[in-house]
Amino acid sequence: MTTVETAIGSTKTMVLNMGPQHPSTHGVLRVLLELDGENVVTAVPDLGYLHTGIEKSCEDKTYSQAITLTDRIDYLNPLGNNLVYCLAVERLLGLEVPKRAQYIRVMMVELQRISSHLVWLGTHALDMGAMTVMLYCFREREEILKIFERFAGQRMMTSYIRIGGVALQPPAGWREMVKRFLDVMPARIDEYEALLTENPIWQGRLKGVGYLPAETLIALSTTGPGLRAAGVAFDNRKAFPYSSYEEFDFNVPTRTESDCFARYMVRVAEIRESVKIVRQALEKITDDGPIKADAPGIIPPEREKMKTEMEALIYHFKIFTEGFSPPPGEAFATVESPRGELGCFIASDGSPKPVRVHFRAPSFINLQALPYMVKGQLIADTVACIGTIDIVLGEVDR
Amino acid sequence: MTQLGNANASVVVEQLRAWNPQAVSGVVEYRGETTIVVPKDLLRVAAEHCRENRALNFNLLSDATCVDRFPSEPRFELNYHLVSLARRDRVRLRTSVSGQQPIIDSLVPVWPGANWLEREIFDLFGIHFVGHPDLRRILLPDGFEGAPLRRDFPTEGKR
User: Fold this and answer.
1) Which residues does residue A335 pair with via DSSP β-bridges, in sequence order?
2) Is A128 helix (H, G, I), strand (E, B) or coil?
3) Neighbour tally for B123: CB within 10 Å
4) Chain B partners of A51 at a C-beta cutoff of 8 Å?
5) Stretch A81-99: mean pLDDT, rounded?
6) What predicted TM-score, i.e. pTM, was given to this entire model?
7) Which helix (H) or strand (E) holds A139?
8) How many angstroms separate the CA atoms of A201 and A382, rounded?
9) Which CATH class is domain A54-297+324-397?
10) N or C: which end of chain A has fewer CB within 10 A?
11) CATH fold group of domain B9-101
12) Which of B4, B69, B79 sits opposite A345 (nearest CB)?
């Protein structure tokens, strides 16, 4: 990339176009880098290559139909998206979800968090040149996807969490399957750490890179591991508990260095905490019990009832043709996604279709911090910063 | 309910009223969420007060979004979701913007994090933010015509 100007020592800057087809942008992010030699003067992210108008499409669907769209926002965290959307609709309706369904939800989103962090760790390590870790991470992620497949019939776009509960009863043998995974996982995390944490190349690439003070991160609305790596222990699961998280015993890992390495350490610690939560959920989930709220007209009746009872048949027909109508009003539900505060805002006018559905996408908002992080750093550090912000372009662009 | 109601709601309203009685033109309590309706002209100072007042301390702007109430007028409702990290509290500030003159003060001077959120609203709803340092389209291509999240824009697009 040597130009005549840099060769003769001129201070003139050049513009480098990074992406949208660049392996380390994790999708279709384009960043315009203004460079002085190898140092970044300014970075301007350019988004929208994956914009699919999901929020607009939601306005044309009934409340239950939109769940399949939420899967596709953050495709590494479909269950979390299902959950935040359902929490918002349930709040609009004033619907109470049975405890058993809440625990199943917690278990599923925590498994999802582990799998999302594993993809992050694997791909980020790959960006930094450590290929082995990716193969290890995807091995464990596969086990989680197998669990999802057994529960929902789908590996990725599960649509498992539904309004008022979850879609299906847990499958036969689920307890052993999850337990087997939990038993191997802690040793596997040690394996990743053995490969990375003390590794001098890994440390050299991440330590002291992409530092931002906590005040700047808060002013930029950053949440999630990025904020916790700066010493702010803000986690929606603790601060604004939902889905019975207040009954679970877990820690919110924090660091104070606020660099790329601290973000890595926070995420690895979070995987360990999630394992703890899933273990507790396993004990809380009883073998029998309801998985859906008792709300005729909103929750589709069971197949058996639909075939034998006139009333259930009418409800079934109405739910799948007209839908249901929450009272007019707004609701804003938030959950802690693997990337930060994931929010869903729904405005209802009392009709069967929402007036507005908006997702507070943590990837989108956290990415705002990128230009501040990379200022004055090397191009190679930009790759590390994009990686540790942990963006999912489906969520950035929606 | 899966989430607890907002026990601090009255504190926020009281503090804002004590600061400027005109700043609160309405309060909506619904399903444990507090919405404070703020006049359009006072939005920026009210937001600033929410952040600076020690008793409120809403230091994080979680979200900003718009609702189009077409065909009623004023058709746009802007919703700002604030979080106090220290007090573990949330509040929503709401203000209305007319369809004939969709212009409002930007909150970027208060929270730099409002930058992309406002660009998104500008892009998808066509609302202009006065004082925004970089008001460009963010998700759609530069040559795109119209504001697709407005209710009178067809979902299939204009052909």
Assistant:
1) A342
2) coil
3) 22
4) 139-140
5) 92
6) 0.91
7) helix A131-152
8) 16
9) mainly alpha
10) N
11) Beta Polymerase; domain 2 (3.30.460)
12) B79
Q: Which residue of A has its CA nearest to B5?
A: A240
- Per the CB < 8 Å rule, is B63 touching A241? no
Instruction: Give the DSSP H or E segment for A17.
Output: strand A14-18
User: β-pairing, A30-36 with A14-18?
Assistant: antiparallel
- Structural Rg of chain A based on CA atoms: 22
Rounded Cα–Cα distance for residues A68 and A63 (Å): 10
B61-83 burial, b if ≥16 CB within 10 A, otherwise e?
A: bbbbbbbbbeeeeebbbbbbbbb
What would the two tokens of residue A34 be?
A: 């203004």
A57: nearest CB among B60, B92, B155: B155
> Which residues in chain B touch residue A327, judged by CB atoms under 8 angstroms apart?
none
Find the CB nearest A330 among B1, B30, B68.
Answer: B30
Chain A, 275-334: which have a CB under 8 Å from a chain B CB? 329-334
Contacts of B33 in chain A (CB under 8 A): 91, 330-332
Return the structure tokens found at A317: 């027909």
Q: Smallest CA–CA separation between A90 and chain B, in Å?
A: 8
Model confidence over A227-284: pLDDT tens digits?
A: 999 999 999 999 999 989 999 999 999 999 899 999 999 999 999 999 999 999 999 9
Chain A residue with the nearest C-alpha to that of B1: A96
Residue type present at position A188 = R
Give the pair of three-digit tokens for residue A3. 């130009």
Burial of residue A184, with CB atoms counted within 10 A of its CB: 0-12 exposed, 13-18 middle, 19 or more buried: exposed
A16, A33 contact by CB (below 8 A): yes
Residues of B in contact with A85 (CB under 8 A): none
Distance between CA atoms of A81 and A67, rounded to whole angstroms? 9
* A48-78 confidence digits (pLDDT tens): 888 988 999 999 999 999 999 999 998 899 9
User: Are A219 and B112 in contact (CB < 8 Å)?
Assistant: yes
Alpha carbon distance B15, B1 (integer Å): 27
Higher pLDDT, B10 or B26: B26
Of A39, A44, A112, A118, nearest in space to A74 by CA = A112
Considering chain A, tell me which residue range(s) the CATH 1.10.645.10 domain(s) occupy. 54-297+324-397
Note the pLDDT tens digit of each residue in A272-315.
999 999 999 999 998 888 889 888 888 988 888 888 999 999 99
pLDDT of res. B6: 55
Q: At what angle do helices A99-127 and A131-152 cross, to 10 degrees?
A: 160
